[in-house]
Amino acid sequence: MRHNTNASGSLVARFLPSLLLAAAVHGWTGVARGGETRAFVYTTDFSTGSLANIQFGPPRTVTPNVATVSSDAVLRSFNGLLYVVNRFGFDNIQVLDPGNNFATVRQFSVGNGSNPHDIEFVSATKAYVTRYESSELWIVNPQTGQHTGTVSLADFADADGIPEMDRLALRNGRLFVSVQRLDRNSFFSPTDSSQVVVIDAATNALVDADPGHAGVQGIILPFQNPGTEIVVDPAGKLLVGCSGNFGVADGGIVRLNPFGLTIEATEATEAGLGGDLNDVAVFSSQKGFVVISDPSFNTLLRSYNRGTGQVTGTPFSTAGFNIADTEINDRGELWLCDRTPSNPGVRVFDAVSGGQLTAAPLNTGLPPQDLTFDSATTVDVAWTGADGPVRPLSLLAAYPNPSSGRCYARIRFTAGTMQEAQPLSIAVYDLTGRRVYGERLGVVGPGDYTVSWDGRTDSGGRASGGLYLYRITVGPHHISSLVVRQ
């Protein structure tokens, strides 16, 4: 193995100049960027709140109680800072600097009694905040905390006048807002429909998702009560989990097309998954994970086939309502917040096999409720083509690298300034220039994406150990880099 590693290093040294020359000729944007390195974990007993910091390792190192926050919060990471959305009864955004001992950089109100639920960033100076107790979506400058604008969602409210705006996602230059539309006069029960409202992030104008009907329409969901994060899959599509009425198997996972503003598919139903949907995470084009609560209100982590909707495994389960958030990092690890009273903490699983990687939950002090991963600062390295600087694609990272066996090499990239969706494909070549694997992966527009290679060849076998060149192609543009198979 040591000989192979040294040989790979030698080949890299000889091969990189040619790779960079090809990049300069074709025109693309490289990125100098480290991958995700740690998790930020929000912990709470619902009377006090705190943060824990967990380094990926190895070994995984936990530092609990790095900052004090509210007893009801969610976390978002952006541009090197950690944003804590302090929710019901607190009504503010707390900005922390992980690089400075999690000191609070600023803290700003988003309106008394507003109950903010999410924040989504358009740029360093523009972000949107959902306000659950209001019909007004706020626009803020996250650098100053200034309220810079408002988008009214009053037309999407039910009879009580409040639309219950919840989670946010930004794709294709548009903001997507899940709107639950619950009846506050009937114990917050679902009304006739829930939807996803679309907003042009450049103009802040509402976008009509159904021009065939009068007025501005959102994307009407086939299920009620969307409560999960809006998740972006490797092809840039949006997934949202709808729980419907609690205790009733009437919800499901919906996949949205952010370009056509349509419902693309119902990936799975609560009836098929075995309980109420609490959370959704996507690993690949074929595999997703859910947290559900069964009819006895026990929570389970399950994997499912995104094509058939069938359950493919139950990596973890608890006796009681104990599992909270789950997220997948760029190393193919699934992190899970386990609030089991006798032994709470964060558990880590292999997203490929479903096997648990932690011998015991990582102790975060208070029970974990929500988590997010850091985002390293991106530095563009611009290559100049015949028509000047070309920045259609940016390579982020490939993890794990080296990879081995059936382990996926997950390649992250950003598609930049495209006017419309373009076809996406991956091709892998050995150092003789022979293609060993290729696949068409649908279409993508502007946004961040992940594609995977599990070492398969076009013939269905496994690629031997060595150095490979992979090429990601989006429309007329491509980016290339190297990956090592052991």
List the helices and strands and how they pair.
Blueprint (H helix, E strand, L loop, with lengths): L1 H25 L2 E4 L5 E7 L4 E7 L5 E9 L3 E6 L2 E6 L5 E6 L5 E7 L6 E8 L2 E6 L4 E6 L4 E7 L12 E7 L2 E6 L2 E2 L5 E2 L4 E6 L5 E2 L11 E2 L10 E2 L5 E5 L9 E6 L4 E8 H4 L2 E7 L4 E7 L5 E7 L5 E7 L5 E6 L4 E6 L6 E6 L17 E6 L5 E4 L1 E2 L2 E2 L3 E7 L9 E7 L6 E8 L5 E10 L2 E7 L12 E9 L2 E9 L1
Structure explained in plain terms:
The chain is mainly beta and about 475 residues long. It has 2 domains: about 1-30 and about 380-485, Immunoglobulin-like (Sandwich); about 40-375, Methylamine Dehydrogenase, Chain H (7 Propeller), CATH 2.130.10. A hairpin with a 2-residue loop joins strand 33 and strand 34. Mean pLDDT is about 85; it is low at about 1-35 and about 375-390.
